[in-house]
Amino acid sequence: MTVLESFAELQKTVDADPLVVKTARERRDIFKSALRSAADVRTVWGAGSLARSTQLQPVHDVDLVVEFKAEDHRDWGQPGTSAEDAIERCRDLVTDLLSVSAGTKAKLVRRVDTANRNRAAKCYIDEPGDKNAFTVDVMPALRLPNGILIPSKRAGRWDEANPAFLIDEVAARQSAWSQFRPLVRLLKYWAREHESDTGRVKSLVMEVLALECLQQANNKPAALKDFFERAAAHSLYIEDPAKLCGVIQPDLDTSALRRALEDSAEAAAQAVRAVAENDQPAATRHWQSVFGTAFPLVLPPGGGSESDPGPRPIRDSPQG
């Protein structure tokens, strides 16, 4: 086994099962078809990681945007209760069209929650008590010339957004370089693996950071080394790429994230040097310190323990 083969195995672990993705898309399409039949709906389209093809395993949610006809809801888009009214309209539509008890288009949804939802109605296809229950978030919207208006129930207002912008940006990068989406999924997995060090880092933060710092290279190791070096030097002030919604994660612990990126940049540089010195086992030990035990080790000639993760980068830490 080589480093590149180890990356191929890691990618299999990270990428969602194609059959699960197929099921998620089929369920999404059932929702789209049913909701489009409503007289006050203009169109329905997918958003989120499934729409961008950057989803990780497991896949248990889908995001949908339901654009309503403004002429049928003339009070929407205004401050006050119209944001909540729009979310409740989504609940009513899903209940009438898709509920297991009374759906006229399909009997699919077991429960719809709106009480604690700020922007969307959460629709449970599986039992709500299951922590991996498959859900569909149905978000109402009104069309703008360069985006959409989406509700904020807690604030009693509507906000401008343009989720299609990121979908298009990711598609363009993938078209130019076939490894972009797979590497984005690896980086989102990296954030998940380092959560104990960094705190929760939203997947969207990692996707936008990838757009800004992930550059085309000859192979995955080189691209990742370059990414970690660039990201470690980034301001980590990660904003909505459409420049409409401000900072994506205001509570992001940027200091902790930067330390994790710096550690990974150091380990990645050591891994690339090890390959240049024809030491594949050492290289995989360094990469395992970046991505965790799911990254397969190359055993040294004559054997050795595959469970040995090798040395982790050493950093100065405050004492006292």
Strand runs, count: 7
Q: Main sheet, how many strands, which sense, barrel?
A: 7 strands, mixed
Mean pLDDT: 93
Class by SSE composition: alpha+beta
The residue fraction in helices comes out at 40-55%
Number of helices: 11
Class of the largest domain, according to the CATH hierarchy? Alpha Beta
CATH architecture designation of the largest domain: 2-Layer Sandwich
Looking at CATH, the homologous superfamily of the largest domain is Beta Polymerase, domain 2
The overall number of domains is 2
Account of the protein in words:
- Strands 1, 2, 3, 4, 5, 6 and 7 form a seven-stranded mixed beta sheet that branches.
- The chain has 320 residues and is an alpha+beta fold.
- Helix content is 45%, strand content 13%.
- The protein is built from eleven helices and seven strands.
- The chain starts with a helix and ends in a 29-residue tail after the last helix.
- Strand 3 and strand 4 form a beta hairpin.
- The radius of gyration is 22 Å and the shape is elongated.
- It folds into two domains: 146 residues, Beta Polymerase, domain 2; 126 residues, no CATH class.
